Amino acid sequence: MGKQKFLGEFEMIVLAALLRLDDDAYGSRIIDAIDEHADRSVSIGALYATLKRLEQKGLVTVRQGEATPVRGGRAKRYFKITAEGQRQMQRSLNALRNLLVGTPVGAVRWVS
Amino acid sequence: MGKQKFLGEFEMIVLAALLRLDDDAYGSRIIDAIDEHADRSVSIGALYATLKRLEQKGLVTVRQGEATPVRGGRAKRYFKITAEGQRQMQRSLNALRNLLVGTPVGAVRWVS
DNA sequence: CTCATATATTCTACAAAATAAAATATATAG
DNA sequence: CTATATATTTTATTTTGTAGAATATATGAG
Description:
2 copies of one chain form a homodimer. By secondary structure, chain A is mainly alpha-helical. Chain A has helices at 9-21, 27-38, 44-56, 83-100, and strands at 60-64, 77-81.
């Protein structure tokens, strides 16, 4: 068995955003989703660096988009989580969840 | 408002273990909890390095224990998550959860 | 006593992840 | 053909994650 892998915290955030955005996940859209849903502002450079790493690890794939017919328009790159990415994501979440379940009911809750 | 903070992935794992162990959280116990519940083996050095950082950030406190009356026994240091630690933990979890809810039902699930 | 041994924590060094700011690329409108 | 609006890449640095060696300290055996 290869060495057990766990995702970094921001890697999980990015992958979660890809799941949410489904077929429309590219740079600024991902930034917006993270900003809106996770209440977190991230620089675009930080995002792309992480996406590149995830791609190199085989956890996301990329599809080249068309340039949109509006002013300003380099072609977009759309990202998608792979099956292996989903697997690692679930494993990382489970690790946290399993440690937290059975914990005395206090300030930190997994649900609600 | 001070800069928004999010915990690292392993920091969350360690804090979750502290919650689980309540008043009995010291070195090897924490290692065991992570090993058992998160199915993850971590070196003791890695753990203490992270605990030190969490302490410096005010996310855990330490209480000095007695040496137990068994062979081999340097005094233990018991760790406990602070209110601020719980706050940051909840915030980090919420960020992930909020991105995942509403996601098409697929391979990655928050519950079950 | 003192030494072997069993815990326990700390130190050291390095790898990986996170992050922002600046640079570059490329499309279209005028 | 140039100004401008996206979009992605590059560069540099800080923070986290990680293991292994070193150190500390308690007790049991003799």
